[in-house]
Write a structure and sequence with these properties.
The complex is a heterodimer of chains A (101) and B (155). Chain A is an alpha+beta fold and 101 residues long. Helix content of chain A is 46%, strand content 19%. Chain B has 6 helices and 2 strands; from the N terminus they run βαααβααα. In chain B, helix 1 packs across helix 6, helix 2 packs across helix 4 and helix 4 packs antiparallel against helix 6. The chains are: A alpha+beta (101), B mainly alpha (155). At the A-B interface, helix 2, helix 4 and strand 3 of A face helix 2, helix 4, helix 5 and helix 6 of B.
Chain lengths: 101, 155
């Protein structure tokens, strides 16, 4: 049995309710730049894992490439962990951080 | 329903030497992650389970990559990609490319890896072979993404 939520069937992003986030705190899924992954690969992974449309996937890919990082999702910790795990399965450099904004 | 697939004919004299590099690194990657995860605020037991699961998936992906270089490849230079192996292979290519960068291509620097602006004639043989392997795997990825993008992404 998987110790983290099933990666290949990760649900597509949806917003947690405000009250849920107030209670549990929000977490960011952050993707960091690396010199290895192809731009087309990163766009494909964003579309597959996060359910992004092409334009949004490209925008986040370029943000990673040009600014070194991009926040690709914000929400409850458990879901954020699932996204990070799946992005790591695709060998993207992804991590979690508390959303303190 | 017929599975979507492509066959690609590769140059045996060019690719076979690169497979030595790919196989060696794939062997290393059975025991360690290509990109060790950054996981703050996670307890040790959960981290270990997380990494074990990533490693198991990585191993399966590498098996899929190596299996396309079987007897048909060595007889005719042909490799086949289809709906069943495309996703695993495109991931495995990334794993090996990451390991190449860490273990064999440090001398080139990350900026050079990103631009690909390298004079192959100026590289010594091991570095040239490693960089050629890096480019070869990127080419396989581009090919797979071009043909299977919508299948990998899914509905």
């Amino acid at each position: 049995m998987s110790v983290v939520p099933e990666a290949r069937n990760t649900p597509k992003p949806e917003s947690a309710t405000d009250s849920e986030l107030r209670l549990a705190g929000a977490w960011r899924v952050v993707v960091l730049n690396d010199p290895v992954n192809l731009m087309s690969y990163v766009v494909m992974v964003f579309k597959k894992v996060l359910g992004f449309e092409e334009a949004r996937a490209r925008r986040h890919m370029l943000e990673v490439h040009e600014q070194g990082r991009s926040v690709v999702w914000v929400g409850l910790r458990e879901r954020a962990e699932a996204y990070v795990f799946t992005l790591q399965q695709w060998h993207l450099s992804a991590t979690l951080e508390p959303d303190e904004a | 329903m017929k599975r979507k697939g492509i066959e690609v004919k590769l140059s045996l004299p060019v690719v076979v030497p690169l497979l030595d590099v790919v196989r060696e690194l794939a062997g290393e990657l059975r025991r360690s992650l290509a990109a060790p995860p950054v996981l703050p605020d996670i307890d040790a037991e959960f981290r270990m389970a997380w990494e074990d699961e990533l490693l198991a998936g990585q191993g399966e992906d590498l098996k899929a990559l190596l299996s396309v270089f079987g007897s048909e490849f060595f007889a005719e230079g042909v490799v086949a990609f289809d709906e069943g192996n495309a996703e695993a292979i495109v991931r495995a290519c990334t794993a090996v490319r990451l390991r190449l960068r860490d273990r064999r291509l440090r001398a080139l620097g990350d900026e050079t890896l990103e631009t690909g602006d390298v004079d192959l004639a100026k590289l010594d043989e091991p570095l040239r072979k490693a960089f050629m392997s890096y480019l070869f795997l990127a080419t396989l990825q581009e090919l797979i993404i071009q043909h299977f993008d919508s299948i990998i992404i899914g509905p």
